[in-house]
Amino acid sequence: MGVIALIFAVRAFIGWQQVRKDAREDYEYKQVRGMVPGAMNRETYEQIYRRVYNPRGPLHVAGAMLAILIATPIAMWGFSIGLDLIYNLSGQSRKIEPGYLVWQFFLFFGIIAVWVSIAYLAARRYHQKAPGSLQFELDKHLYGGDDLLAQQNYDDGDNSLQLYLSLALITSILTAVAFFMRKL
Length: 184
Prior knowledge:
The protein is an all-alpha fold. The chain has helices at about 1-30, 40-55, 55-90, 100-130, 135-145, 150, 155-180. The chain starts with a helix and ends with a helix. Mean pLDDT is about 80; it is low at about 150-160.
């Protein structure tokens, strides 16, 4: 996983270098043909161009993979402690004994839940920080402010999704604990 994250990070770095070169060439091309307003200097144009066309995807993938690589052993440690606690609270029932099917089930799906959560957060950040088109970003810089589309707030649905996922996780944990306590 670390090697794949490194590959994506290198891909992002190479992409950044290419976009930097493309920004210079694009500015020169548009400047010669009068396609860039006189109020826009080269540095500002290149900065906006890079913000729009930089390879954000590979960088977010690399970051998510690195986060998964770091979080997996920590999550395994946390799940092991939690499952040991449930095992001891159940009176050391054979049904939840370490290494048996129920134990493996919780570890398997718990790790998948951690990975999916990290992927969700990376994708959410990727889309929240996405710039508009080059023309939109240039207009925003030149004329100030955002238009109506940029001012809309799309976080309302995200909050309800987070609440739903949190409640689902808490409910499943409480159900599992109640199930094992009932079997005492």
